[in-house]
Write a structure and sequence with these properties.
The chain is of the alpha/beta class. It is built from 21 helices and 20 strands. The strands form four sheets. A six-stranded parallel β-sheet has the order 3-2-4-5-7-6, sandwiched between helices. A six-stranded parallel β-sheet has the order 11-10-9-12-13-14, with helices on both faces. It is globular, with a radius of gyration of 24 Å.
Length: 556
């Protein structure tokens, strides 16, 4: 059968199992858009308002489903807008494929209109960046991209599509389907050694991360941890990968790391790290484990050999998929019951915080949400001080999920929530957004409206860029510069996009407002009146400033 490159690409994606895609149209890939015309209900195209939002949606979709999030953008400005989503997918280890229109091969190298060298631009951001130069090889390239995005350490792939490669005709056959690749398993000898090291510990710790866990893998890991009575810490923003209700779960190693978690990591004598990319946040700036040889015995399990030994020299490195390892582990016993129990008590105590000096008290709101939200809720957030509430004041059960960027990208939460509703329309999806964070991608409310994928959005409006103000007050107290916001009417904005919207001016108003949001059927935006003083759960803005001024006075 003769087809053009655009048709061949779309049919290959269908064969691989793609069912959703996100993007902003461009003349550079009209042949793909034409091919998508006939795939409604099989490979849907979610029309987005900005390429950055589209790429965030694809990254979040990949993280949530384990199948590559597909994104289409045009060349030049479209590609550079989308780069934020590629970077986020890389740091999140999320499978994603970004297709970018490109100038025709007859114009390459001339700095033609919107021309970019995509291998150079994305080569250090994506797992693989490639450009099609032969339409007949398109199936080969797409198959490799799918495998690259989903295996080892999952991540994003960028494929540039010159216009003539999409309009040229070819008899190349469509792919038959994705490659069936079994997970790499650990050898018996390596597992025996790992369990021997654990059994000799006095203060063992399980550190888990990564988004490519299967349900069977999570269940097996929890069974191992509980039978062995070993405390479990989740890496930065991966606390949804282990049941927080388990007696073994003791917290998250991430930004704003709680003192008891820091102590657990630094005082552990054996750390069993599974599926973890040792980032700055998980290691508290690489201070909790000495580089390159930690004082703790380190067993590092990862599906990619590039992660093992990248920063820390492990006592034992095991290149294997996390699910395969979790299923193969046998319980170990040791005299560490008090170590685990004390850590769990500290975790439970971390939910206690003082009444907030704010019209809406997020400690009380978070408590109500913990008790009320369904067990399969999906929470999302972007970046800012407000993320402490979904990240530190919510307990994720085995069916709940968190979509939050390890890259610390503002504006991720709303697109991620839309992607979650696209993937699972019947599930409750709640996005937490600061007022500054929300305005990074608030135009994607239009995408949600058009796609019928409308989440509930909580806009925590305190009129400032909170994280930066906190750092500002600590380092340059009382010298406010560039961190005060003048905001629009968020309720009016949301209503213009067809959302139910209301302002919540007091804590007592929140439960009824949230129930109205749930019942609306249109998605909702609730603007919460948050005082700038309530900058952190346990320290006000004034206290931060006063402490910094006192320090300056004592150390002029």
């Amino acid at each position: 059968m003769i087809r053009n490159g655009g048709q061949l690409l779309v049919e290959c994606l269908l064969a691989l199992g793609a069912s959703k895609s996100f993007g902003v149209p461009g003349e550079s890939y009209l042949a793909v858009l034409d091919a998508l015309h006939d795939t409604a209900g099989r490979l849907d195209f979610v029309l987005c308002r900005n390429e950055g939002g589209a790429a965030f949606m694809a990254a979040a979709y990949g993280k949530l489903t384990g199948s590559p999030g597909i994104c289409f953008v045009t060349r030049g400005p479209g590609a550079t807008n989308a780069s934020i989503g590629v970077h986020t997918a890389m740091q999140d280890s999320s499978p994603m494929i970004l297709f970018v229109g490109q100038v025709g091969t007859d114009m390459k190298g001339r700095e033609a209109f919107q021309e970019i060298d995509y291998r150079a631009v994305f080569g250090t951001v994506a797992k693989w960046a490639v450009e099609i130069d032969d339409v007949a090889r398109l199936p080969e390239t797409v198959a490799r991209a799918w495998t690259t995005a989903t295996t080892g350490r999952p991540g994003p792939v960028v494929i540039a599509l010159p216009e003539d490669m999409l309009t040229n005709l070819t008899e190349a056959p469509v792919l038959g389907g994705p490659a069936r690749i079994s997970e790499p398993a650990a050898g018996t000898e390596a597992l025996t050694e790992a369990q021997a090291i654990l059994s000799q510990a006095r203060r063992p710790l399980l550190l888990i991360g990564g988004a490519n866990w299967s349900e069977e893998g999570r269940v097996a890991l929890q069974a191992f941890a509980e039978a062995s009575d070993i405390p479990v810490v989740a890496a930065f923003r991966f606390m949804d990968q282990f049941d927080n209700g388990s007696s073994c779960f003791v917290g998250e190693a991430g930004v704003g790391m709680l003192p008891h978690v820091k102590t657990l990591i630094s005082d552990a004598d054996v750390i069993f790290a599974i599926n973890v990319r040792f980032g700055e946040m998980t290691t508290d700036g690489y201070s909790l484990l000495a580089v390159p040889e930690p004082k703790q015995k380190l067993i590092h399990v990862h599906g990619s050999n590039r992660e093992i030994g990248k920063i820390y020299v492990p006592t034992l490195g095991i290149q294997a998929a996390p699910n395969a390892v979790a299923k193969a582990l046998s319980p170990v016993k040791g005299d560490w019951a008090e170590w685990r129990a004390t850590a769990r008590k500290s975790y439970e105590a971390s939910f206690d915080a003082p009444i907030q000096p704010s019209p809406v008290d997020m400690v009380e709101v978070s408590r109500w949400l913990r008790e009320t939200l369904p067990e399969d809720v999906i929470l999302t957030n972007g970046a800012g001080n407000f993320t402490v509430w979904p990240n530190k004041f919510f307990k994720f059960g085995p069916k709940a999920r968190l979509l939050a960027p390890q890259s610390g990208a503002m504006g991720y939460g709303l697109p991620a929530a839309i992607a979650a509703k696209v993937a699972f329309p019947s599930r409750t999806v709640v996005c937490f957004a600061g007022d500054g964070d929300f305005q990074m991608n608030c135009q994607e409310l239009g995408t949600a409206m058009q796609a019928g994928a409308q989440p509930i959005v909580l806009v925590l409006n305190n009129g400032i860029y909170g994280t930066i103000r906190a750092h500002q007050e600590r380092h340059f107290p009382a010298r406010v510069s560039g961190t005060t916001l003048e905001n629009p009417d968020f309720v009016g904005l949301a209503k213009a996009y067809g959302f139910h919207a209301e302002k919540v001016s007091a804590t007592v108003e929140f439960p009824a407002a949230f129930q109205r949001a749930l019942a609306s059927g249109t998605g909702a935006v609730l603007e919460l009146d948050i005082s700038p003083e309530a900058l952190t759960p346990r320290q006000t803005l004034s206290q931060i400033r006063a402490a910094a001024l006192a320090s300056q006075k004592a150390n002029p």
